[in-house]
Design brief:
This protein has 451 residues and is of the alpha+beta class. It has 14 helices and 23 strands. The strands form six sheets. Strands 3, 7, 8, 9, 10, 11, 12, 13 and 16 form a nine-stranded mixed beta sheet that branches. A five-stranded mixed beta sheet has the order 20-19-21-22-23, with helices on both faces. The chain has a three-stranded antiparallel beta sheet with strand order 4-6-5. Helix 11 links the parallel strand 19 and strand 20. The structure holds 5'-O-(N-(L-cysteinyl)-sulfamoyl)adenosine. 5'-O-(N-(L-cysteinyl)-sulfamoyl)adenosine binds next to strand 8, strand 13, strand 16 and helix 10.
Length: 451
Amino acid sequence: MRLSRYFLPVLKENPSEAQIVSHRYMLRAGMIKQSSAGIYSWLPLGFRVLKKIEGIVHEEQMRAGHIPMLMPTIQSADLWQESGRYDDYGAEMLRISDRHGRDMLYGPTNEELITDIFRAHVSSYKDLPLTAYHIQWKFRDEIRPRFGVMRGREFYMKDGYNFDLTKEDALHAYNRHLVSYLRTYERMGLQAIPMRADGGPIGGDYTHEFLVLAETGESEVFYDSAVTDLSFGDRAIDYDNVEQCQGVLEEFTSKYARTDETHDEALFNEVPEERRRVARGIEVGQIFYFGTKYSEAMGATVQGPDGKPTPVHMGSHGIGVSRLLGAIIEASHDDKGIIWPEGVTPFHCGIVNLKQGDDEADAACNQLYAALTALGLEPLYDDRKERAGGKFATMDLIGLPWRITVGPRGLKNGVVELTSRRSGESEELSPEEAVKKIAAIYASHPSGRGF
Ligand code: 5CA
């Protein structure tokens, strides 16, 4: 993408409504624009990151054997009356009526809708196990929408639902989700710690939230600092292997780590004092096992091996896709702007032309652009007739992890400058070497195509 043809409305001033750094930088970098309280338009740069994050979520869900689909945003109230949640859900649910006076709602989550699909089409235990998911907009009329995309009213969520014959099978589905989430967040450059939590309006007492530690987080958390030493890394995992998945769950959840809702002071005090931590965190996902809560209420049964109708065991598993942008920025920024981890960066690298209009510099930039693009990489070429200082400030603000700087002086010696946004370190390389180096970096950080 050439910056002169892109739509990147960066702001010079700090917007006064933004209280936390991620919100501030998302507004300043021209990623989002508020349309009404807790509802945002996704401007091109924000949309690109959203889609990169979504791509990683899809890849890791499919790797775990979960099936993508898409359900609507608007749901009929009838289904929610069947489950009993229409009245229970309260003021957070946006209730609508259509021209015929039928009660509808904008879905805050999809347990009822997917259970309705399931009961219409699945009738035998032989069709189990089944886990399907979608990534779709949700609406919750939060009492205090704030911090930009962190607590929106409209937000983008991955929600997955497992249907199993037995509790044991459903717990394996739970563990599969836990493992796939660890991989998902790590690919985004995040450490998200699974913590014992509360079921809330979804239900079930077997649930973990995934928290990214951050001072600006909305949740209070209590944990044994040893959990922060754990990482999933690139170990091989067989998602069909029950013991292996259970082993990962045990490894990542046996140390004390709880949100304030389930915090137990006596248990916490058993953690050696020097390892006890009380901190704040951003909830980027939650997994639930709730047994037959919805299947019994809604008659979602299958014919079991004994020929008898058996309510299926279910769980649901969410990832806050749009919230993740805020969480990643909270975890990765400096006073100049965002520092995107390679896995989610909107463009793989920036190209800054120090002397736009200089034949040699223009030609070198065009060649770099073509060479990177030919390798499937996505550069953002700042080809505007601007001062170098302004171009650097924009690149630093929008946070591309790598920048290639091209100027007549370097080109005389056959070199360009490759700079790491994270370390600030630069090295002089031939243009070919710079391209090679960037290609090598991204070979180990696969991310989907940018939109
Ligand atoms: N049905 C279950 C699992 S699919 C469910 O809805 N879980 S949830 O309520 O925990 O939401 C899943 C994730 O969505 C949360 O972990 C959080 O990361 C994100 N989320 C929830 N509310 C908001 C909000 N108001 N703004 C942004 N993200 C949100």
